[in-house]
Amino acid sequence: MHCVYLLKSIKNHDLYIGCTSNIKQRLAMHNQNKAYHTKKYGPWKLIYCECFISKKDAYQREKSLKLHAQGLRRLKERLRNTLMA
């Protein structure tokens, strides 16, 4: 199982999108400052996750969220109350 996830920084409320096959381990890496792109902004909270059987589908979804503003905007609209918390 491969997951696309959305993290929110507790420190400055930045968002981070990633993809992994082990969500618990990956979140721990982010919070232990072992992930290069997120180590400055932790701690992180998992706020959204989509799971796929196909690794290729998961990475395509991650890419679409990162590269296409409309996809991320729609996800933020769905998570409006979660993002305000």
List the helices and strands and how they pair.
Layout: E1 2-9, E2 15-20, H1 23-31, E3 44-52, H2 55-67, H3 69-78, H4 80-84
Antiparallel strand pairs: 1-2, 1-3
Helix pairs in contact: 2-3
Strand order of the largest sheet: 2-1-3
Number of domain modules: 1
**Name of the CATH first level:** Alpha Beta
Query: Could you list the spans in which at least 5 consecutive residues all have pLDDT below 50?
Result: none
- Biggest β-sheet strands, sense, barrel: 3 strands, antiparallel
Strand percentage lies at: 25-35%
Q: What is the overall silhouette?
A: globular
Distance between the termini: 29 Å
Mean of all residue-level pLDDT scores:
93
The CATH architecture category equals 3-Layer(aba) Sandwich
Oligomer: single chain
Structure description:
- The chain has 85 residues and is α+β, with helices and mostly antiparallel strands.
- It has a single domain (2-84), classed as GIY-YIG endonuclease (3-Layer(aba) Sandwich).
- The protein is built from four helices and three strands; from the N terminus they run E-E-H-E-H-H-H.
- Strand 1 and strand 2 form a beta hairpin.
- The longest helix is centred in the C-terminal third of the chain and has 13 residues, at 55-67.
- It starts with a strand and ends with a helix.
